[in-house]
Specification:
The chain has about 375 residues and is α/β, with parallel strands linked by helices. The protein folds into three domains: about 140 residues, no CATH class; about 90 residues, Methyltransferase, Methionine Synthase (B12-binding Domains), Chain A, domain 1, CATH 1.10.1240; about 110 residues, Rossmann fold. The protein is built from 14 helices and five strands. Bound molecules: cobalamin.
Length: about 375
């Protein structure tokens, strides 16, 4: 950005929003261009652009515009003289935005800024001051959203947005889960992925699954049950969760998987197994995930061919928790060391004593990891 700032049109293009949106943000929320020279239109400075990016990011996440604007106005900006006070070309050593009260703990957002979407001007390498400011703003936002502080502070817990199309979540649910639920109801895939990937990256799989993914899945399940609607939300959310869990780096190829994960015959629910595979990977434990609806014959063949020490069979629905399928594994000449029945579909009272019931993700990671240790 030239030192004299950007016109409204140029600012809008950089942000990827309409000029009318910028005008609205200016008139209603005071996020206007601050550089003014007599006889010329006002221009957007670097600080203005950083604020606009905060505004854009937060509104995309479902934060009400007035609340997003309040955050944007408080967002850290470059030192005042970095861009506006001198006529010298913006130097690459222009100060990065000062750490304000809302600055993230240092290093808390590292590693995921590359994935954070909504950058100010992707590829705009000619503008170091703006790039530095934007990067710092992104880090701040990421850390705040991730910590839940931002969404909590702006009072997202009231379920107002979305015209009543909300997913009911408990009163003490994690703020990131609220953001996810809102994004899900808006069918806003990019925001869902942003929230989910942030959670997985910064909190780890078990916490992301338990505190962010599960409440929203359970909420959308209840919503579906009550209305027989929102299948599209459930599908997009499932997809986003699958994608977010897949970003966890898998252990090196040389480490042969000794854990087999499969959904029971006719069982289409696989997300808990995907969470288990990702959480195991985080612990350095590789696994083979066969996926949905694995018939007994296929399961037995896979065990025969790969000789796993642990098999985890998932049943979500009572109709798929068929103990006979576990029996097929137990009857093998070389049965796996641990045969685990996971999920609410299994009739716990009828499980053979040699089958290990698993009731939670953290427990499953512990049992599986220690079985192959
Ligand atoms: C996503 C989803 C789908 C997706 C699955 C996508 C995928 N890739 O997995 C799709 C669209 C395919 C789907 C299909 C169907 N679904 Co569905 N689905 C869900 C939803 C929203 C989440 C499922 C999930 O991942 N649950 C896991 C966690 C989030 O929930 P949980 O099981 O209650 O968690 C408990 C335990 O499992 C345990 N736990 C949690 N995580 C982990 C992890 C491990 C490793 C372990 C050991 C334990 C554990 O802790 C929790 C506390 O006890 C649920 C809602 C729900 N409450 O589960 C409905 C739900 C399971 N589905 C339901 C239904 C009815 C169906 C369909 C029959 C719909 C239809 N008409 O076609 C089909 C079933 C097809 C089939 N034969 O399997 C009902 C089941 C009702 C019932 N009990 O019979 C539910 C409960 C929704 C509802 N409230 O009505 N579904």
């Amino acid at each position: 950005m030239a030192n004299d700032g950007l016109s409204a049109g140029a600012a809008a293009r950089r942000l990827g929003v309409a000029v009318t949106t910028l005008r609205t943000w200016h008139q209603r929320y005071g996020l206007g261009p601050s550089r003014h020279e007599p006889g010329h239109h006002r221009r957007y400075t670097v600080e203005d652009m950083v604020r606009l990016q905060v505004m854009q990011r937060l509104t995309a996440q479902g934060v009400a515009p007035a609340e997003a604007a309040a955050w944007a106005r408080r967002s850290p900006g470059p030192e005042p003289d970095a861009t506006t006070a001198t006529d010298a070309a913006p130097a690459s050593d222009s100060p990065a935005p000062a750490s304000g009260a809302s600055a993230p703990p240092s290093g808390s957002a590292s590693g995921s800024s590359a994935r954070a979407s909504g950058s100010l001007a992707p590829g705009d390498s000619a503008d170091p001051a703006l790039r530095a400011a934007a990067a710092a703003a992104r880090e701040s936002i990421l850390a705040l959203v991730e910590s839940g502080a931002m969404i909590a502070d702006v009072g997202l817990g009231d379920g107002r947005a979305g015209g009543g199309q909300t997913i009911a979540l408990g009163p003490r649910v994690d703020p990131a889960a609220r953001g996810l639920a809102r994004a899900a109801m808006r069918l806003d895939g990019p925001s869902m992925r942003y929230i989910l990937e942030s959670a997985v990256t910064h909190r780890g799989v078990i916490s992301a699954w338990t505190n962010v993914m599960m409440p929203v899945l359970i909420g959308i399940g209840e919503r579906y049950e009550a209305t027989k609607r929102f299948v599209e939300v459930e599908h997009l959310l499932s997809r986003a969760i699958t994608e977010a869990l897949s970003i966890v780096p898998r252990p090196p190829r040389e480490l042969a998987p000794r854990v087999l994960l499969a959904a029971a015959d006719e069982e289409q629910h696989t997300l808990p197994l995907e969470a288990l595979a990702a959480a195991l990977a985080e612990n350095g434990v590789p696994s083979r995930l066969l996926g949905a609806r694995v018939p007994s014959r296929a399961l037995v063949d896979a065990v025969d061919r790969t000789g796993p020490a642990v098999v985890v069979l998932w049943s979500q629905l009572p109709g798929t928790g068929n103990v006979a399928q576990l029996g097929c594994l137990m009857a093998l000449p070389h049965p796996p060391l641990v045969i685990a029945a996971a999920g609410p579909g299994w009739p716990l009272a009828d499980l053979p004593p040699t089958v290990t019931p698993l009731s939670g993700l953290a427990e499953a990671v512990r049992v599986v990891s220690s079985a192959i240790a």
